[in-house]
Amino acid sequence: QVRLVESGGGLVQPGGSLTLSCVSSERTGSLVPMGWYRQAPGEQRALVASMRSGRDPTYADSVRGRFTISRDNAKRTVTLEMRDLKPEDTAVYFCKYADFWGSGTQVTVSS
């Protein structure tokens, strides 16, 4: 059973930056997508960014150019650097690897 643990969420002002990290309890295969989803209140969980070896990262249109995903398979981690954050980025952010999910970390963008 793979366990994913996220960290780095918090409260930030509009225009600010945050970095989310996720570490897997088990080795991660580079060909298996690993990435981030988010869910705002009353909305469905949606892809934010994902990556796998041999392909360009995938980003949601709403975050492209502001968020950057990176992955270190040796350390079993995936990181999401978020900049120029907007109130509409407020959500619980979930790490996903294969069919496994983390428990989520809250990101709140508010002045």
Q: What is shown here, in short?
A:
By secondary structure, this protein is mainly beta. It is 0% helix and 49% strand.
Task: Show unreliable segments.
Answer: none
Strand content: over 45%
Quote the average pLDDT: 96
Number of helix segments? Answer: 0
Total number of beta strands:
11
SS content category: mainly beta
Q: Estimate percent helicity.
A: under 10%
Largest sheet: 7 strands, mixed
Amino- and carboxy-terminal Cα gap: 40 Å
Describe this entry's structure for a reader.
The chain is an all-beta fold. The chain contains no helices and eleven strands. Strands 2, 4, 5, 6, 9, 10 and 11 form a seven-stranded mixed beta sheet that branches. It has a four-stranded antiparallel beta sheet with strand order 1-3-8-7, with no helix packed on it. A hairpin with a 6-residue loop joins β4 and β5. The chain is globular, with a radius of gyration of 13 Å.
Strand and helix layout:
Layout (H helix, E strand, L loop, with lengths): L3 E4 L2 E3 L5 E7 L9 E6 L6 E6 L6 E2 L7 E6 L4 E6 L8 E7 L2 E2 L3 E5 L2
Parallel strand pairs: 2-11
Antiparallel strand pairs: 1-3, 3-8, 4-5, 4-9, 5-6, 7-8, 9-10, 9-11
What attributes does this structure have?
111 residues, mainly beta, seven-stranded mixed beta sheet, four-stranded antiparallel beta sheet, 11 strands, globular
